[in-house]
Design brief:
The complex is a heterodimer.
Chain A lengths: L2 H12 L10 H14 L7 H27 L5 H9 L4
Chain B lengths: L1 H13 L13 H15 L3 H19 L6 H18 L9 H22 L4 H7 L12 H12 L4 H12 L4 H8 L3 H21 L2 H4 L5
Helix pairs in contact in B: 2-3, 3-4, 3-5, 4-5, 5-8, 6-7, 8-10, 9-10
Classes of the chains: A mainly alpha, B mainly alpha.
Chain lengths: ~90, ~220
């Protein structure tokens, strides 16, 4: 007999198997209740918003000052290059 | 045999998805009560959900028994299915039977369980199979032994192939139903089924299963 037919016979025998009885209703409801309890209340976002706003203002001031400082800054190597720039190469 | 199984499944769909194997009589009152219970559960009525669990746990356990042979694990998986179903109830549109919807969740839960086992490189299935007592009288193999032998054989192929064969063999699903249940391509499922059956045949021949189960010859 072909192996696949033998497997099919085995399958039809296995389908008669008695499945263990389970009763999970109580545990399912308990898990549902505890899952509900475990959910944390939503965190109020107003304080976070205020904090974020203050941080943004402080960061803007720092960026403004930093840009001005950057613009005012000279390249320390410029003093070294300047004579070379005016020298004739040939 | 598969054709026969498909007929059985289509019958169970026609009968509102109630598992005929449980011997529960189908009637309109049951379906109406179920619909009411689903609606009440959506509104947070846990006693209504308890009734749904009690009505369907046997069917879900029957399907998940093909994913594990350990009763403790089986109970955990069945619980997981019903907990997931509860939190997804709002997504149940009532287009198909509730039992069919639960079967989808159960199949995906079982498949995830196999994937997790595979990731953890657990040799649970094989070890479990080693513990099987081979029948002394090979003229007769009990359904439990047949189930165990098949479980051992199927455990040796990859999870996707195993799932396709498990659903075909034990849940009587067609390739179309498997594709629909898992959100896969039907052509892929057909190809998987063909290859998986060949793999299973090779494994059975290689391991001399038929010599052990002499009754089949």
């Amino acid at each position: 007999m072909d192996t696949l037919k033998q497997i099919d016979r085995l399958v039809s025998r296995a389908r008669q198997e008695v499945v263990p009885v389970v009763d999970v209703a109580d545990r399912v409801l308990w898990r549902i209740r505890t899952a509900g309890v475990g959910v944390k209340p939503p965190v109020p976002i107003a304080p976070l918003g205020i904090f974020a706003g203050l941080s943004a203002v402080a960061a803007s001031i720092i960026v403004f000052l930093a840009i001005h400082a950057w613009m005012a800054m000279n390249n320390p190597m410029m003093e070294l290059y300047r004579p070379v720039q005016v020298a004739s190469l040939w | 045999m598969i054709r026969e199984a498909r007929t059985r499944t289509s019958e169970s769909y026609m009968l509102g998805g109630i598992d005929l194997a449980t011997g529960r009589e189908y009637n309109k009152a049951v379906e109406d009560q179920e619909r009411l219970d689903i609606r009440a559960s959506c509104q947070g009525d846990q006693e209504a959900y308890r009734r749904l669990v009690e009505r369907h746990q046997r069917q879900v356990a029957g399907l998940l028994w093909r994913f594990t042979r350990d009763k403790g694990v089986l109970e955990e998986l069945v619980q997981e299915v019903f907990v997931q179903a509860y939190f997804s109830l709002s997504g149940y549109r009532g287009e198909g039977s509730f039992a069919g919807w639960l079967s989808c969740i159960a199949t995906r839960t079982g498949y995830r369980f196999w994937k997790k086992q595979s990731r953890e490189n657990a040799h649970y299935e094989i070890n479990e199979a080693d513990a099987v007592e081979q029948p002394e009288d090979t003229d007769e193999v009990t359904p439990q032994e047949a189930g165990q032998v098949l479980h051992t054989l199927l455990a040796q192929i990859n999870e996707t192939d195993r799932l396709v064969l498990t659903l075909m063999y034990f849940d009587g699903c067609s390739t179309e139903q498997i594709a629909e249940r898992m959100g896969w391509n039907r052509a892929m499922v057909k190809m998987r089924a063909y290859r998986a059956r060949n793999k299973l045949r090779a494994l059975a021949e290689e391991q001399g299963i038929w010599e052990t189960l002499g009754w089949i010859r």
